[in-house]
Amino acid sequence: MSIRIERMDKNIKIVLPVDTDPIDLQNALSYLKYTEIVQSSKATQEDVEALSKSVKSAMSKDIIQRLRQ
After folding, report:
1. Beta carbons of 14 and 3 less than 8 angstroms apart
2. Residue 13: pLDDT over 70
3. What percent of the chain is modeled with pLDDT above 90?
4. Contact (CB, 8 A) for 14 and 5
5. How many Å separate Cα 48 from the centre of its chain?
6. Which residues contact 12 (CB under 8 A, 6 or more apart)?
7. Residue 1's pLDDT is what?
């Protein structure tokens, strides 16, 4: 795979081969979006862990309830 990166005046252009796997490309774009969002975040690691714990707990309750049906 040959990837070319070109610096423009106000942008960076990334040229990929046509046969690039769309799923791999989407994963790369999602990661770039994630880093853009995280860069301006004021959340601490403790905030992230608390939110993660809360979401996992809510998901577990939802999954258990669906399994009982």
Report:
1. yes
2. yes
3. 62
4. yes
5. 15
6. 5, 6
7. 67
Cα 14 from Cα 69, distance rounded (Å): 49
Would you state the structure tokens that stand for residue 68, as one six-digit string? Answer: 């009982």
The separation between CA 39 and the C-alpha centre of its own chain, rounded to angstroms, equals 13
Q: Which residue has the tokens 């959340």?
A: 43
Q: Which of 15, 23, 63 is nearest to 1 (CA)?
A: 15
Instruction: List strand residue ranges (DSSP E) for the chain, in order.
Output: 4-7, 12-15
* Dihedral sign from CA coordinates of 34, 38, 41, 47: positive
Structure tokens at 7: 């610096």
Please state, in angstroms and rounded to a whole number, the distance separating the CA atoms of residues 69 and 64: 9
The residue written with tokens 């046969």 in the block is 19
Paired tokens of 16: 């990929």
In the predicted model, is pLDDT for residue 61 greater than 90? Answer: no
Cβ(1)–Cβ(17) below 8 Å: yes
